[in-house]
Design a protein that fits this description.
- By secondary structure, this protein is mainly alpha-helical.
């Protein structure tokens, strides 16, 4: 019993220490992402995403890189773009960019594994998009793409973050409480979408880090001809990611543990790529697009991830950029010290608290989807003597159809009051 309690203690301790290592970076990354989402206009980009040529795919890549790193948000926005006429290539490019080219992911990878992996993730994100575009028609016919678009149009609309639509100069935005409210609400909603994945990722990393290297030797080949080891690791990496259920920034801590345990450079990169094909997300694809298209794009993404990881490994090997030293468990789960991380983490906590406080002062929760919205800019509806706020007309309409279904924990409305509406 004592041994079990000791393992639990060390697992929780190491999970916290790894989170301590990157807390300030997470806050900084999500804050920058929220600023970009709130202040960079998207309307013109979204209207130009039809077709699979260079221009729409490049625009989708730029839009994805300016979005949240949350995998679930990425597929919801991509589905919305796809249903409005964006090509499959553009929608998938958006997903790859928003989960591989965003700043918060790069910062966390740099801190936990090293700058080579952060650089490889950026290069790999671009390679993913190129390979996917080239291979798309081998997996998805035009007929199947059109059928999937009809399914997407018929399914419920996903929730997206919206800026206020204000046209302000940068100086005006910096001085505007309304503009910072947009930032704060994007920041809070991004955290609301990914905190579980991030928490699970750190917990998995902390507890798997208690296992010996024999455990990792059973997962992937460490002693074999270089070519066989490279291919096997690049295939096993995404499989581990799929079965771990962890996505977004949350799979980076586990990637650090896998790298420490002996997986190859290509295996780590392929593992990080695979956050878009974890099992819960595959189920969402089936709901959005139908079984046939969902299975085809999952197969396409898996093959694309393996090929791209091998290409990146080849490029970095040729440039001698693949690290030769692997971190020890003690280096991954470093202790708390009085150093720059202490002060940056305190600053990160202050930024986090300030932005959340702004949403509490100006915000309200959408009773349908739970998103935090700015009361001054939300869709409003009066019901039973109370005012409710919604992120979109879609949620307002859902509430209007069945208000009682969405009132649990949001408001107490008597049957007599409800009957009068």
């Amino acid at each position: 019993m004592t041994d079990v309690l000791e393992v639990i203690w060390h697992g929780l301790r190491d999970s916290f220490l790894m989170a301590w290592e990157v807390w300030w970076a997470l806050v900084l990354g999500f804050a920058i992402s929220a600023i970009v989402q709130a202040w960079v206009p998207r309307e013109k980009i979204q209207s130009a995403l039809g077709g699979s040529g260079f221009r729409p795919v490049a625009l989708a890549t730029g839009l994805g890189a300016a979005s949240s790193s949350c995998s679930y948000a990425a597929i919801a926005i991509a589905k919305s773009l796809f249903s409005k006429g964006a090509s499959a290539a553009s929608a998938l490019a958006f997903q790859f960019a928003s989960t591989n080219l965003v700043i918060e992911l790069g910062i966390v990878i740099w801190l936990l594994i090293g700058w080579q992996f952060a650089f490889a993730e950026f290069v790999g994100g671009l390679v993913l998009i190129v390979v996917m575009t080239v291979l798309l028609r081998l997996f998805v016919s035009k007929r199947l793409e059109d059928e999937a678009r009809r399914n997407a149009q018929e399914s419920d609309a996903g929730h997206q973050h919206h800026s206020a639509g204000e046209r302000l100069t940068l100086r005006q935005r910096l001085l505007s409480a309304s503009a910072w409210s947009d930032v704060a609400h994007n920041f809070r909603n991004d955290w609301a979408m990914v905190w579980k994945e991030v928490l699970i990722g750190f917990l998995l990393a902390g507890f798997i880090g208690q296992l010996g290297n024999d455990f990792f030797n059973a997962l992937f080949i460490t002693e074999a001809p270089a070519g066989l080891k490279l291919i096997e690791n690049a295939i096993v990496g995404p499989i581990i990611a799929i079965l771990s259920f962890v996505c977004s920034v949350g799979n980076v801590p586990l990637a650090a543990v896998l790298w420490s345990g002996g997986i190859s450079f290509a295996g780590v990169i392929a593992f990080i790529f695979a956050d878009l094909i974890v099992l819960p997300i595959v189920q969402i694809y089936r709901k959005y697009y139908g079984n046939a298209y969902a299975m085809r794009i999952v197969a396409l993404m898996f093959v694309t991830m393996v090929i791209s990881a091998l290409i990146v490994d080849g490029l970095f090997s040729g440039l001698s950029l693949i690290p030769t030293a692997r971190p020890s468990r003690a280096e991954i789960f470093s202790s708390i010290k009085i150093d720059y991380k202490l002060f940056t983490n305190i600053l990160g906590l202050a930024v986090f608290a300030t932005l959340f406080a702004l949403t509490m002062r100006r915000g309200a929760s959408d009773p349908v989807c739970g998103m935090k919205v700015d009361r001054a800019k939300a869709v409003r509806m009066d019901f039973a003597g109370q005012t409710f706020y919604f992120c979109s007309r879609h949620c307002a309409h859902a509430f209007e159809i069945s208000p009682h279904e969405h009132l649990t924990g949001q408001a107490k409305v008597s049957d007599a009051d409800a009957a009068r509406h």
